[in-house]
Write a structure and sequence with these properties.
By secondary structure, this protein is of the alpha/beta class. It is built from 7 helices and 6 strands. The radius of gyration is 16 Å and the shape is globular.
Length: about 210
């Protein structure tokens, strides 16, 4: 069910993309900037609860994507909140869609790893049980103007796409997937990776043969 076959659809009109600076959304941003001729609006939600690290990572990712693609037909929108959740993550995007400021919203959501891999992770999260990321279920990629081209692909497929497009050494290293918070224990990894949170474990599993 986790096929790595991939074909990115490029839509007309100004488009939006939700980009956090993680490996998935950063790859999608690069591909959109590489192949789209339309104005691209980049939406980033920054959490005060997570020390606003996303705001620093995303700027590095955007600058690198500009360097790699030469595309400057973009506009970046930073949204700050106390704690990120599904509602405020996409609230501004939905408003822009409803007002027809953008035609389509791209997101980099991916499938979970297979269940046996999930069971090997030290940290368990509710996302493991989410039908939205259930790796055994084939899911629609376009819903209510939200386009999710990676929705049926897991992190190993994302890693293979980084390799295919020659991005392992120049884009991947500046992305950040870590979701460390003090409650997890250990020391603050800064803009690096703690190596212990669910997202770090998924990243290590996905990119293991490239790093």
């Amino acid at each position: 069910m986790n096929s790595c076959d991939f074909n990115l659809e490029i839509f007309k009109g100004p488009v939006g993309i939700s980009c956090s600076g993680g490996a998935d959304s950063s790859l999608l941003l690069y591909l959109l900037m590489k192949y789209s001729k339309e104005k691209i609006h980049i939406f980033t939600t920054v959490s005060n609860f997570k020390q606003r690290k996303t705001s620093q990572v995303i700027l590095n990712v955007i600058n690198q994507c500009i360097k790699l693609t030469g595309n400057i037909n973009i506009e970046h929108h930073l949204h700050y909140c106390e704690e990120q959740n599904i509602k405020n993550l996409f609230s501004i995007c939905k408003e822009w869609l409803s007002n027809d400021y953008i035609k389509v919203m791209y997101t980099g959501i991916t499938n979970n790893p297979p269940i046996e891999v999930l069971n090997s992770f030290n940290n368990k999260m509710d996302i493991v049980d989410s039908k939205d990321r259930d790796s055994t279920i084939k899911k629609e990629e376009f819903i209510n103007k939200f386009y999710m081209p990676f929705r049926n692909m897991d992190k190993q497929c994302i890693a293979d796409l980084y390799d295919y497009y020659g991005l392992i050494d120049n884009l991947y290293p500046i992305t950040r997937s870590c979701e460390w918070i003090p409650q997890l224990g250990g020391s603050d990894p800064g803009l690096g990776h703690c190596g212990n949170c669910w997202w770090c474990e998924e990243r290590k599993w996905g990119f293991q043969k490239y790093v």
